[in-house]
Every structure is written in C-alpha cells, then in structure tokens.
Design goal:
- This protein has 340 residues and is an alpha+beta fold.
- It has seven helices and 14 strands.
- The chain has helices at 35-42, 50-62, 147-165, 202-213, 217-227, 268-285, 325-338, and strands at residues 5-8, 11-16, 23-27, 76-80, 98-102, 119-123, 172-179, 191-197, 231-234, 239-243, 251-256, 290-297, 300-308, 319-323.
- The strands form two sheets. It has a ten-stranded antiparallel beta sheet with strand order 4-5-6-8-7-12-13-11-10-9, with helices on both faces. A four-stranded mixed beta sheet has the order 1-2-3-14, with no helix packed on it.
- A hairpin with a 2-residue loop joins strand 12 (290-297) and strand 13 (300-308).
- The longest helix has 19 residues, at 147-165.
- The protein starts with a strand and ends with a helix.
- Bound molecules: zinc ion (ZN) (2 copies).
- The site of one zinc ion has 5 residues, from loops.
C-alpha cells in the first residue's frame, strides 16, 4: 500500500501525501494564539456610510465582469440567461446569469495551443455583491449561490472543457477557482478559470505517474479516509472527505471513483452528483478564501481538491501541521448536510 501513515489508539498521528511526499502532522493547536494573524478579521464592521455606497457603486461601474460592462471583456462564448436557472434570486431583467469568455491574460501562450487562446473565464453569477451587502467587502461567494445554479455552472464547465479539447493542440484541461484575494483571485467578482494545456499540467502528471504504478491508489485513499472518520458524503457515484493530505490544513476532496474520464464525459446524473457534493462543502466553508481545482484525465478518477486558505500554519517545505479540529469539522459538516 503506497499510503504511509501512523495511527495511535485509532487516531491519525501523521500521514504522507503519496503524490507529493508532504507530511501532515496532526497537532493540538488549542493553546496557540492566532491573535496576530486573525486580528484584522475579528473586528466588527462599521455601520454603512455614504462613502461605502459610493465605493460599491464605483466597484460595479469599473468591474469587467459586471452586467453593462461586457465590452470590457473579450467576446462572449457562452451565455446562460436567468430563465435557465430555477429560483435564481437576481434581477430577472439582467440579460445573463453565467457568462464565458476568453481570459484577457492567458495562463499558457496561444502559440503553444495552435495559435488559439485556451484560457477561459467563467463568471459564475452576474451579481457582484451579496443581496444584503452593506459595504464593498461583502461580495457574493460561490457557497452563497444556489445548488441548481452550481449544477448549471458545472454543465457550463463541461461544455468549455469539450470545446477546449476540440483544439487538437490541447491535451489537458483544468478547472480552477480562487475565492478572495488571499487565494490569489485577481477580480472580486466570482469567477472560475478553465485552462487548456498542450501537455498534462504538472500537478496532473505527478498524480498520473503514481496512478500508473498504483492503480488502486484512489480506492485505498477513500478506504483510509472512511476508516479515519473523515468521510463526508458517500454515495454510489461520488465520495467526499476532509483530506489530511491537502495543500493546506483545511482541505477537502470530492471524488468520482468509478468515472475514470473527463467532466464532459459524465452523464447528467453523474455531473449533478459531483456538482452537488462540491456545492455542499463550498456552502459549509462560506465566504472564507479558498481555491479549488478539478483534476481530470483519461484513466484517472475525476476529482476536485478544495483548499481553504484561512489557516496560517500552512505548508512549510513539504510539511503541514494539521489542527485536531479537522476531525470535529467533519461532524459539523455532516450535521449540516443532514439538515437538508
Ligand atoms: Zn462585478
Ligand atoms: Zn488531483
């Protein structure tokens, strides 16, 4: 078995990420003070002022992802009108809810993908702020959009993946989300990136190399997470768990163990199950900065890694300190799901 770890009295003490070699060490951080790193966030917001409203109006006016500013972005590829998303709570007069166009700043030069820009932006919702926002920092976040909209968003992702792969120069496509400036999001308006690459992206290459020598790796991982009590969702098609081997201490994986293919090759029920499992975790995390990546390749179980960016005691030279609290958070997450 390729996964190395140690249990003491049934509890996980440390575990080594089989892909990267990073070692996660579970520690009790209850006595550690985070007053310095969390101080700015713990202040309650001041009451809204005229200047808050002015700053919000200015943010909408200059945002290239907002309705009315479509001409500030490259030409549109896909548009989902509000009528296609049941119970969408935004302005019904808005001409679109989800929109796709090429990224003005490609991640990979077009010269490497047959002269075509294969970097895409998917604007997840035309709303910039939360419905009851009082200030410019109260942005809409992915966990706040509805489940049906997130499923529709995943269908759009699948459409873009298929489009990118129709370019013979593209071999690999990744879906990536950054939420919040702390996670590297360059625009405050909620969006995803989709990147088509001429070769397997480096993270996928690492995963595929190990999978070739350890074909049962994902089954072993899912079994171990279950044994450790970290499983969140376990259905016939999709499994999710709080991962002790993520990039940061608070990470989650959503895996389709039986679908060894790409997003656009899923049937509608599978795509919906995958999207709903991701959405439950995103809703639980809320507005906290995070990133997620959907990894897909022929022969590899389709999966998403969700990484929360809140915790400062993060990855240092391939070592990770994991708070014992991750085990409590799984219980809280499951309880939230059971209330659905
Ligand atoms: Zn906007
Ligand atoms: Zn992966």
């Amino acid at each position: 078995m390729p996964i190395e770890y140690e249990l003491r009295a049934g509890a996980l003490v440390w575990i080594k990420n089989p892909f990267t070699g990073a070692i996660s060490y579970i520690v009790d951080l209850r006595d550690k003070s985070f007053a310095f790193t969390l101080g700015a966030h713990s202040l309650s917001p001041p009451p809204p002022s005229q200047s808050d409203r002015e700053r919000m109006a200015r943010a909408l006016a200059v945002c290239p992802f907002c309705p009315g500013n479509e001409s500030k972005a490259p030409s549109e590829i896909i548009r989902v009108p509000p009528g296609e998303i049941p119970h969408w709570p935004g302005d019904p007069a808005c001409p679109w809810t989800i929109r796709v166009f090429n990224n003005l700043f490609p991640r990979i030069p077009a010269e490497l993908t047959g002269g075509q820009n294969e970097s895409y932006v998917v604007v997840e919702d035309s709303r910039h702020f939360l419905p009851d926002a009082r200030g410019p920092s109260e942005l809409l976040f992915t966990g706040a959009i509805g489940e049906q909209q997130f499923v529709r968003l995943m269908e759009v992702n699948a459409q873009v993946v298929e489009r990118s792969l129709s370019n013979p120069a593209v071999q690999s496509v990744v879906v990536r989300k950054n939420q919040g400036p702390e996670s590297g999001a360059s625009q405050p308006h909620i969006h995803q990136q989709i990147i088509g690459s001429p070769v397997n992206l480096p993270v996928l290459e690492v995963e595929l190399r190990l999978l070739r020598s350890e074909p049962r790796l994902w089954d072993d991982l899912i079994g171990l997470m279950d044994q450790l009590g970290l499983t969140i969702d376990s259905g016939p098609e999709v499994v999710s768990y709080a991962s002790p081997i993520g990039i940061f201490p608070r990470s989650y994986d959503v895996v389709m163990p039986h679908h060894r293919g790409l997003l656009h090759q899923l049937d509608p029920a599978g795509l919906s199950a995958f999207a709903r499992a991701m959405h439950r975790i995103l809703r639980f995390i809320g507005p906290i900065p995070l990133d997620y990546e959907i990894h897909q390749a022929a022969g590899m179980p389709l999966h998403a890694h969700i990484n929360v960016r809140r915790f400062p005691y993060s990855n240092v030279a391939g070592t990770l300190n994991l708070p014992q609290g991750i085990f409590d958070s799984v219980g809280a997450l499951r309880r939230t799901l059971n209330q659905d």
